Amino acid sequence: MPYPTDRERDRPWVIRTYAGHSSAKKSNALYRRNLAKGQTGLSVAFDLPTQTGYDPDHDLAKGEVGKVGVPVSHIGDMRTLFDGIPMAEANTSMTINAPAMWLLTLYVAVADEHGVPRERLAGTTQNDIVKEYLSRGTYVFPPAPSMRLISDTIAWSVQNIPKWNPINICSYHLQEAGATPPQELAYALSTAIAVLDAVRDSGQVPQERFGDVVGRMSFFVNAGLRFVEEMCKLRALARLWDDITRERYGVQDPKQRRLRYGVQVNSLGLTEAQPENNVQRIVLEMLAVTLSRDARARAIQLPAWNEALGLPRPWDQQWALRMQQVLAYETDLLEYEDLFDGSRVVEAKVAELVEGARAEIDRVQEMGGAVAAVESGYMKGQLVSALAERRRRIEAGEDVVVGVNRFQTTEPSPLQAEGAAAVETVDPATEAAAIEAIRAWREGRDAAAVESALGALRDAAKTDTNLMDASIACAKVGVTTGEWAGVLREVFGEFRAPTGVSAAVVGGSAAAEIGEVRERVRAASEAIGSRLRMLVGKPGLDGHSNGAEQVAVRARDVGFEVVYQGIRLTPAQIVAAAVQEGVHVVGLSVLSGSHLEVVPAVVDGLRAAGADDVPVVVGGIIPPEDAAELGKRGVAAVFTPKDYQLTAMMDEIVSLVLAAHDAD
Fold first, then answer.
1. SS3 at position 19
2. Contact, 618 vs 585, CB < 8 A?
3. What is the pLDDT of residues 275-322, one digit of tens each?
4. Phi-psi sector, 217: left (phi>0), alpha (psi -120 to 50), beta
5. Is residue 538 annotated as a catalytic residue, yes or no?
6. Does the active-site annotation cover 3?
7. What confidence tens digit (pLDDT) does each residue in 322-379 have?
8. Which of 18, 31, 133, 249 is catalytic?
9. Which is nearest to 560 in space by CA: 585, 592, 541?
10. Would residue 564 show up in a list of annotated catalytic residues for this protein?
11. Do 510-661 and 14-406 have the same topology in CATH?
12. Phi, psi of 34 (to 5 degrees)
């Protein structure tokens, strides 16, 4: 039977891979290779110092430079990053939040140098600070000034770079933090309402142009393995967005109300055990955001099969790129109208999700909106509780994870054969080179011009003046990321978000096992002479706190007294808290790859403080060879994603504490 020739194919979505590491020069080479392989957009991963507004030579940047993304410290780095890449044709996504305004100004400043008209710039800045307080942790400033930075960026962008999406509201990270589909929809849309209200109330955009603001709003979503439900979730999001923008903001143009979203499919569900299974997981998740034509993603980036092990190599990213290309170009998916129109099953599920999301949106609005629900700890508590329940179901075997809690028997994987480098590693010399380079950059610029530009930024921040132009002026004279953020820290202050740990409860089928370990904790406390206390710490700049929060919740539930102060602590701060609180064990969570730098600093600090009897345990994405090295440096135990039984982990920690005190 001949292939049909009378159907017009849809244009494929923007095909991206999320990439960047080590340095601007190495990342530029990676981007060029990816574009040559058929990638149609760029998705820039920035390292944690850049994301949190620090230069490479700041104390908190130690061990983090170039690890989870590219360091961009000034306009020189941005020039190098986009060297040879036609910015007039590029569609660039930048995953940057608290300093989103700053990185966008660097991008605009380099485009100006290239002679690219600003109205031709196309792309997206990830600029959703609410989800940073809830899940990802790369916030800097308190909510009010953070919303001001977002409003300024959106208002300026609509006027000056009209093809740019100045924000994507991120439901992706909410799902990673445990959100159910209705919570994910509700909290993302509550954030969008807060942002649109802030832009409207700032008075920077005339009412007759507010539709342009709505038209440039985008979303960044997640899609898990329940791909039918996930597809329905996206149809529900499109319906809710259309209703909100029409009813609340009076936008009449259907094109401006259309849901615009990009996606990276779920990374939380990728497994360290039998990681080859992640390939089919990624493909199935991709179907959720492509099958429904009326709710199809505008841009897609896929994780690699080995991201539960560490930083993917270029070949791994190529594999993920080819998955998209096979679906877009080899199948007939793009030849048809929406496959689900008229399906009573799909319509019923969409209606259920819409109803649940609306109820939760109303609850948040009654509290005063998304910002108030962040400050009160309500939304964070809901996410921590939802993730605790999901972990309970996995531990109890109620939710099956192939290769983890069922079907564990396996053959050796040729993808991880002996001698094979299964993940990309960042040269330890990267950080030293970046420190040397940033110091040389400061020495080589016009110091007076820098001080003048920073002074103008400081003065503007104290008023309601839009900060984009002052930031562009800073970029063009060579101000650094740390300096820009430092000035705003002076004016706005900093913020520590609620942890949500106190709200979570674990029950159900896990209760019996928890009771057994709780009895062990009680007996150990009696043997030692005081209630067992655990400090859970997040050293460095890694803000992904889901694992740390779940460990803190389970430790509390088995009877430990838990000290958890949240994210972004120096090793010295963790040591000081451990000594002051008289804890019996320190548990560190590190997901950014900085474990060989920050963890030994905590061990050495405890020894120097005379706390030799306090064992240190570590959890995170830690390769076996690094785990062995940490053991040599004094770490008592290393836990990785395959150690999903948190109660069993607590039991092992009790044994370590007893051994450290020579107690039975």
1. strand
2. no
3. 999 999 999 999 999 999 989 999 999 999 988 888 888 899 999 999
4. beta
5. yes
6. no
7. 999 999 999 999 999 999 999 999 999 999 999 999 999 999 999 999 999 998 889 9
8. 18
9. 585
10. no
11. no
12. -65, -40
* Catalytic residue (choose from 47, 316, 542, 626): 542
Closest to 190 (Cα-Cα) out of 130, 141, 144: 130
The torsion defined by the Cα of 394, 306, 35 and 153, in degrees rounded to 10, comes to: 50
| pLDDT band with cut points at 50, 70 and 90 for residue 1 | very low
User: Both tokens of residue 452?
Assistant: 């003048």
Given this model, what pLDDT does residue 261 score? 93
User: Which is catalytic among the residues 31, 139, 172, 261?
Assistant: 172
How would you class 419 by CB atoms within 10 Å of its CB: exposed for 0-12, middle for 13-18, buried for 19 or more? exposed
| Token reading at 52 | 């949190």
What sign has the CA pseudo-torsion 291, 297, 300, 306? negative
Angle at alpha carbon of residue 533, lines to 532 and 534, rounded to 5°: 125
Contacts for 635 with CB less than 8 Å, ≥ 6 apart: 599, 600, 603, 616, 617, 618
Tell me which amino acid residue 566 is. G
Q: What is the pTM (predicted TM-score) of this model?
A: 0.88
Contact 266, 225 (CB under 8 A): yes
Q: Is 133 an annotated catalytic residue?
A: no
d(CA 188, CA 63): 32
Per-residue pLDDT, averaged over 465-487, amounts to 97
Task: Tell me which of 21, 67, 233, 544 is the catalytic residue.
Answer: 544
Beta bridge partners of 590: 620
CA 662 to chain centre: 42
Among candidates 157, 53, 148, 67, which has minimal Cα distance to 104?
157
Angle between helices 468-477 and 447-461 in degrees, nearest 10: 170
pLDDT digits (tens, 9 = 90+) for 62-85: 888 998 899 999 999 999 999 999
User: To which CATH superfamily is domain 14-406 assigned?
Assistant: Methylmalonyl-CoA mutase (3.20.20.240)
pLDDT band for position 443 (50/70/90)?
A: very high
Question: Which residues, 6+ apart, have CB-to-CB distance to 312 below 8 Å?
Answer: 303, 304, 305, 306, 320, 423, 424
Domain spans of the chain, in order of start: 14-406, 429-492, 510-661
Catalytic residue (choose from 74, 173, 233, 476): 173
Residue 219 and residue 189 in contact, taking contact as beta carbons nearer than 8 Å: no
Catalytic residue from among 21, 58, 380, 538: 538
User: Which residues make Cβ contacts (< 8 Å) with residue 520, sequence separation at least 6?
Assistant: 558, 651, 654
Q: Evaluate whether 46 touches 539 at the Cβ level (below 8 Å).
A: no
Q: Is 172 among the catalytic positions?
A: yes
Signed CA dihedral, 116, 120, 123, 127: sign only? positive
- Establish whether 18 is a catalytic residue: yes
CATH 3.40.50.280 fits 510-661, yes or no: yes
